[in-house]
Amino acid sequence: MADHQARFERHRPLIGKLLFEVAIIFIGVTGAFALEAARQEREDAAYRDGMIAALIPTFDDLERHTRLFEQATGPKIAAFDAALARGEQPKLPIYREPGGERPPSRAWDGIVATGVSKALPPELYYELSTFYSRQESFGERYVRYAYMTEQQVLSLGPDQRGIYDPVSGKLKPEFAAYVDRLRDLVGLSTSLGVRSRELRAKLQALR
């Protein structure tokens, strides 16, 4: 026992030196990991902010279009309904997308290609995916509505002769369906505008 104690005392300085060097190495490695983690966190934050900044214009586009679309269609539909209620035979309300064949949209596939999924929580990424799918659906519905406009309504001429049944005086079913398609577009546009503002708020809360 005394011999072991003697050897320990003889090597104490060396053991202390080794322990000190191990401690220095541990502190150095830990510090390096901490610095790397901090650097990665800064890069992730910058990347997330960049992705959010890139997404915001898509909400600007949609909300601007929603506002203009509802300002253009709301009064027309209201006036049409009021005239029907008075027993009149008003012309059909028509909306034509200015400057394009369909409302503005940003393809979700292109947004995904930027790597946005790595910058967002999974739940928010899913919500955005659903939102852009609905936006694309709005565009497709408008295309179908525009086709109906060209084929069924504009072909009647400016007076829109023949849209009312000559016997009952009521709007023919195919033209009632045409107006309903416009109502559907207004409803979807409104819900997209509301959802756009909700998602914008969630994205900005991440910054």
Helices, strands, pairings?
Layout: H1 2-85, H2 108-113, H3 122-153, H4 173-205
Q: List unreliable stretches of 5+ residues.
A: none
How would you describe the shape?
Answer: rod-shaped
Number of domains: 1
Number of helices: 4
Total strands: 0
Mean pLDDT: 80
Structural class: mainly alpha
**Radius of gyration based on Cα positions:** 33 Å
What is the element string, with H for helices and E for strands? HHHH
Question: Mind describing the biggest β-sheet?
Answer: none
What fraction strand? under 5%
Helix content: over 70%
Distance between the termini: 65 Å
Structural summary, described in words:
This protein has helices spanning 2-85, 108-113, 122-153, 173-205. It has one domain (57-205). Helices cover 75% and strands 0% of the residues. The relative contact order is 0.12. The longest helix is centred in the first third of the chain and has 84 residues, at 2-85. The mean pLDDT is 80. It contains 4 helices and no strands. Helix 1 (2-85) packs antiparallel against helix 4 and helix 3 (122-153) runs antiparallel to helix 4. It is mainly α and 207 residues long.
Short characterization:
This protein is mainly alpha-helical and 207 residues long.
Task: Please name the defining characteristics of this protein.
rod-shaped, 207 residues, 4 helices, mainly alpha, 75% helix
